[in-house]
């Protein structure tokens, strides 16, 4: 379980953030630009230390050692490693480095995990290709696959589907569902794609000025909420398969 106790982001919000996230859940954070979505993820990812306390599995985030950290947290922010001349398969194996025995090669189960990720993220045609030469869409899918492969208790993702096509968005959505299916992994992601958030998450947090102003079920996301916080007019329809909201923006708004 992830727990935030009185966390204050450096944005002047009067109300601190105090929340609990059940293990096995997927939570989306939405809000206008500058609302604090990425900042909140960065705080949980230990990129900076805001006032308040953050606990993972009952342990204070500040007390988790650097060696232990990958077991607890995996953080995707869309950035590309500086040195990524390996093949895609070898690059993905690096996600498991914290789990293999020191001075021993990767075991068969790690190789199988990398193979499964390549299949799940539809990357088989790039398996032996040098990572830095992948097309942009495949490259982003591979970076997300790397974050999932770390098999950390908490997966943080900052705008994971930005720039992805419909096919890739569906792949990421299914991958996150599989990742939490066992009930022992938690996902927290920020997204500028409101439809993706509503279709993927079990819970939606709306942020404004560094505070969480709405904590709702995805089914409750409606035009009034979007108008209130995003200051734009939208049409919200319902997906015919699952009844969840799909957000349509009017041209020129």
Number of strands: 12
- Beta-strand content bin: 15-25%
State the end-to-end distance: 39 Å
Low-confidence segments: none
Strand order of the largest sheet: 6-7-8-3-9-10
What's the CATH C level? Alpha Beta
Alpha-beta content class: alpha/beta
Please name the CATH architecture: 3-Layer(aba) Sandwich
Biggest sheet details: 6 strands, mixed
Question: C-alpha Rg, in Å?
Answer: 19 Å
How many domains would you count in the coordinates? 1
Counted by DSSP, the helix tally is: 8
Assigned CATH superfamily = P-loop containing nucleotide triphosphate hydrolases
Provide the residue-averaged pLDDT: 91
The CATH topology assignment is Rossmann fold
Along the chain, the helix and strand elements come as EEEHEEHEHHHEHEHEEHEE
Helix content: 25-40%
- Shape call: globular
């Amino acid at each position: 379980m992830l727990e935030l106790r009185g966390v204050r982001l450096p944005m002047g919000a009067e109300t601190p953030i105090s929340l609990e996230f059940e293990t096995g859940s997927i939570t989306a954070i939405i809000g206008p630009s500058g609302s604090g979505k990425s900042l909140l993820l960065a705080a949980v990812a230990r990129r900076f230390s805001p006032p308040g306390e953050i606990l993972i599995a009952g342990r204070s985030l500040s007390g988790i050692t650097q060696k232990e950290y990958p077991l607890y947290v995996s953080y995707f922010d869309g950035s590309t490693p500086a040195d990524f001349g390996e093949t895609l398969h070898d690059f993905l194996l690096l996600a498991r480095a914290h789990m293999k025995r020191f001075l021993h090669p990767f075991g068969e189960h790690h190789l199988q995990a990398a193979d499964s990720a390549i299949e799940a993220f539809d990357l088989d045609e790039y398996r032996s290709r040098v990572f830095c030469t992948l097309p942009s869409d495949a490259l982003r899918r591979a970076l997300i696959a790397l974050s999932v492969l770390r098999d950390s208790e908490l997966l943080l993702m900052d705008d994971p589907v930005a720039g992805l096509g419909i096919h890739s968005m569906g792949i990421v959505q299914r991958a996150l569902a599989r990742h939490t299916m066992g009930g022992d992994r938690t996902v927290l992601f920020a997204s500028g794609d409101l439809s993706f958030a509503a279709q993927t998450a079990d819970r939606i947090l709306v942020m404004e000025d560094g505070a969480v102003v709405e904590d709702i079920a995805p089914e409750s996301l409606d035009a009034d909420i979007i108008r209130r916080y995003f200051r734009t007019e939208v049409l919200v329809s319902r997906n015919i398969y699952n009844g969840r909201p799909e957000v349509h923006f009017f041209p020129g708004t």
